[in-house]
Task: structure prediction
Amino acid sequence: MASDILVVDDEEDIREIVSGILDDEGHETRTAADSDSAVAAITDRVPRLIFLDIWLQGSRLDGLALLDEIKARYPDLPVVMISGHGNIETAVSAIRRGAYDFIEKPFKADRLLLVAERALETSKLKREVTELKRRSGDPAELIGTSVAVSQLKQTIDKIAPTNSRVMILGPSGSGKELVARLIHRKSNRAGGPFVVLNAAAITPERMEVALFGTESAASHERKVGALEEAHGGILYLDEVADMPRGTQNKILRVLVDQQFERVGGTKRVKVDVRIISSTARNLEELISEGEFREDLYHRLAVVPVRVPSLSERREDIPFLVDMFMRQVSEQAGIRNRRIGEDALAVIQAHTWPGNIRQLRNYMERLMILARSDGPETVISADMLPDDVSDMLPKASAAGSNHIMTLPLREARELFERDYLIAQINRFGGNISRTAEFVGMERSALHRKLKSLGV
Ligand SMILES: Nc1ncnc2c1ncn2[C@@H]1O[C@H](COP(=O)(O)OP(=O)(O)OP(=O)(O)O)[C@@H](O)[C@H]1O
Result:
């Protein structure tokens, strides 16, 4: 594994020995004799690993001070200290200050290589973990302080440690899968798998193979299905309403027996799986139409949990916007921006039929579009892409030709109407908070709304 390694030591022979040993193993090395040239080398290209002499005599910064500077700028860059005989204590304190390890002079080539490999491997793993976390994009907790979200959090905390089957109901993109993942994380199955099976994305013919796996006596071939894969953990049945009737019968049997047969197999497979299911559809309607088995519904929805739509929790929008902006900035390497009150108000007033997923995609688009403006420019309402800023009440709300044909009184009423509807939406229908924001008495606002026919 060739890696770019920087060797920093004031003694030329040590620099040569260390880089010689590493070069022989195929690593690429650079050397620096003092702190300033080390900083310059790191600025040129951040190495994967640094070997750093503790004393570093005759240079602006000694080894420990340079370590502090490196760690402040590149907290994840591993640094191995080279310690002289008799200053182990200093080496130990360097580890406390963020060094990965130390080697003591005189050292053996084997020890040096071992430490280098381990440091490189550890930082690679750290990177992978960070990447995975970033890709998943899921926050560790539900974002928001609204009553609806606070109640949801409480419900999650209450039901997670139990083993009961949960059915999560809520519109598309509202965070059902996130809720299921949080239940998993907080349950005693957190160490076990979390397997997702999306019934809407699998054809009815493939459904049973996906769920139960296959087995062929002739070829001894075996494919593990989602139920088996989820053994000891949780199976998340997304869009369960789309499950074919035939599969519904079979899954009901699994719930009763906690065992099943693979497709084409004869052996019973015993599993210990907690099932969480979800749907955005109206199950009661589907049950009355005979599309969904009522007894299966009762088995799956021992605890029904409702996830609110975004329009039911608009007060959480500023927190979500802030999180998504930070997330996009990290993921896309775009400088984070500030968003103006006016833009936030428009976003808050929008209806968001695609819920949190739509808001996240929108923020991503907004950040990318706004990239060409200077990083200091605050994102204002007029910079919002049209689909959302159309919600903004403007004098031309009824079409600019139209409003120009109206007398002032009617034009003003038209504007007032749009403006107040947008503000009421923004505050989730709360008249007191709307009144406070628009600067009117609550009773006066009521009267105004009535006179405008809102
Ligand atoms: N309260 C929340 N805080 C932060 N992010 C959230 C929240 N709820 C949902 N998200 C994010 O919104 C996106 C959509 O959520 P998720 O996939 O869980 O929705 P869903 O209801 O399962 O959607 P579908 O019905 O389409 O399967 C995800 O990226 C998720 O991380």
